[in-house]
Design a protein that fits this description.
2 copies of one chain form a homodimer. Chain A contains 5 helices and 5 strands, in the order E-E-E-H-E-H-E-H-H-H. In chain A, helix 1 packs parallel to helix 2. The first copy, chain A, is an alpha/beta fold. Chain A is globular and about 55 Å long. Helices cover 52% and strands 20% of the residues of chain A. The first copy, chain A, has a single domain, classed as Nucleotidyltransferase, domain 5 (2-Layer Sandwich), CATH 3.30.420.
Chain lengths: 167, 167
Amino acid sequence: MRLLGIDPGSLVTGYGVIDGDRDNVCYVASGGIRTDPSSPFSDRLKVIYDGLTRVILEFQPTEAAIESIFHSHNVQSALKLGHARGVALLAVVNAGMMVAEYGPTAVKRAVVGSGRADKEQIQRTVEMLLNHRMGKGYDASDALAVALCHFYNSRTERRIRLLEERR
Amino acid sequence: MRLLGIDPGSLVTGYGVIDGDRDNVCYVASGGIRTDPSSPFSDRLKVIYDGLTRVILEFQPTEAAIESIFHSHNVQSALKLGHARGVALLAVVNAGMMVAEYGPTAVKRAVVGSGRADKEQIQRTVEMLLNHRMGKGYDASDALAVALCHFYNSRTERRIRLLEERR
């Protein structure tokens, strides 16, 4: 299966695409959709939506996962992040896909093994797991981490289903 | 000119369409796009986006205005509202329109004359100004109030421009 992971943000929305079969995962693509802070906010939302729609069209993922947000520094940043995450979710749903949601702690625990891992640790683990050297910034590696979290989660679910069928 | 006013919300997104020429405004349409709280949040965002897109296609407004949000009860409700407002803005921008933004106090002041008006007062004033009896709930009248605010604002701007050209 091909998985798309999304790390939404009003300034940069990270995306990461991986291929996974039963036991192996490999890197396909990743990057950041950057918006211009000096342009109208509604135009920036369009950049995020169009950017993700292009990524979906190009790489044809079969499943998508996005980081869920429960906390924010304040109401203002929550509002901004909500706008960005809203259009990111819409891009996935408008492409006919379901989207799984994982909290930041769940992502860190699934990928690094600790819910308290920092962004640097996440990036190094993602680089190691996917055998791919990441560039500067954490948007792409955070998105790949969400995709990896979804892969591990789906794999566990599949195994449980198989075990239940054999009983 | 034909104006679309939007009052975004994750449960109900109000819309109101008015026609305005130099001095007169008249009611065209209004309503609420209701989402099912029991369905996945991403599907509810699609309902808001598709609903507004349909309203724009049907009534072909030339300008749009939306209520801006600065405050919220808490981070959780700000996040939810941000998602809804994000896809509402995207529906307008994807239809090729610019969107003006007005704070709640500016809308109340422009329509009722007082920045402290409550929803009941807004609805009664909207009914009077547009000579149209509204149904239950305040989503449609709040959206019409945003459209009216934009109409008055544009009219003032046009008058100032005319006066400046004559000087």
